[in-house]
Amino acid sequence: MKILLIEDNITIATNIQKYLELEHFQVDISHDGEEWLHKAKTGNYDLILLDIMLPKLNGIQVCQKIRTTSEVPIIMLTAKGQLEDKVEWFGCGADDYLVKPFDLDELLLRIRAIMKRKNQFDTFVFWDIEVILPTRKVLKKGKEVHLSIKEFHILAYLIKNHGSAVSRTDIFEYVWWEKAIWEENNKLDVYIANLRKKLDKHLITTIKWYGYIVWKK
Predict the structure, then answer these.
(1) What is the domain-level CATH number for residue 114?
(2) pLDDT classification of 16: cutoffs 50, 70, 90
(3) Looking at the structure, do residues 45 and 148 belong to the same domain, yes or no?
(4) Pairing assessment for the beta strands 2-6 and 26-30 based on DSSP bridges
(5) CB 75, CB 111: distance < 8 Å
(6) In 54-180, where does DSSP find H-type helix?
(7) Same domain for 74 and 91?
(8) What is the mean pLDDT of residues 188-201?
(9) Mean pLDDT of 12-34
(10) What's the number of domains the chain is made of?
């Protein structure tokens, strides 16, 4: 699962990032309200953690802009907690909020609750393979198959776009994001080979000179 954290306090942002990465989330950070524009457009995020008090564009403005093009879940992070504040946050399109200071365990619970609601029907079946996105489980003939974090993220991106060709560049931007494409080019081939070996050699089809596609049988 890929999260964008928009938080101008570097210490808070770093602590949240480290904690969530230990829980196997991929977390990118923006420190101001304008920087998110590029990252949100190129990062293909599953959830956004959004601070209210931001330089350049505040959290309300950022949330409103996101909602013009996306329904990605948004959790507001704020030092305020009055009723009128909550009305404004939900009015701009936020899905939930946490008042600072908050416990990181509670943040994790909120994230999982939102994604469970959003993805409660996100179970995909391909031949004898079942992929359950909310719990990050992959079953083959009813038996769980262990995938690395990168393998699962690649598989999840492909099955979310099943029936459509996905370019190698799209996969790089979703799974690795800022790292140079050339550094990871050979690694992607290895991950795809591992997925075929662990699941089914026919599950992922290579499109020469472009990328990959998953067909739902």
Answers:
(1) 3.40.50.2300
(2) very high
(3) no
(4) parallel
(5) yes
(6) 59-67, 83-91, 104-118, 149-160, 168-175
(7) yes
(8) 93
(9) 87
(10) 2
Q: Of the candidates 118, 133, 151, which is a domain's last residue?
A: 118
Structural domain of residue 45, as residue ranges? 2-118
Strand 123-126 to strand 26-30: parallel, antiparallel, or no bridges (unpaired)?
Answer: unpaired
> CA angle, corner 216, sides to 214 and 217, nearest 5?
125
Cα dist. 116→109, 110, 145 in Å? 10, 10, 21
Same domain membership, residue 173 and residue 102: no
Of 118, 149, 167, the one marking the end of a domain is 118
In the predicted structure, residue 121 carries a pLDDT above the cut 70: no
Cα–Cα distance for residue pair 31/66, rounded to 1 Å: 16
pLDDT > 60? residue 133: yes
- Rounded to whole angstroms, how far apart are CA atoms 88 and 123? 34
pLDDT at 174 over 80: no
Claim to verify: residue 50 and residue 112 sit in the same structural domain: yes
Q: What Å distances lie between residue 78 and 49, 72, 196, CA to CA?
A: 11, 19, 44
Tokens of 84: 């009128």
For tokens 């990168």, the residue is: 150
CATH number at residue 160: 1.10.10.10
Q: ∠ at Cα 181 (202, 16), nearest 5°? A: 95
Asked if residue 201 and residue 106 are part of one domain, the reply reads no
Q: Does the global pTM surpass 0.90?
A: no
Q: What's the maximum distance between 2 C-alpha atoms anywhere in the chain?
A: 56
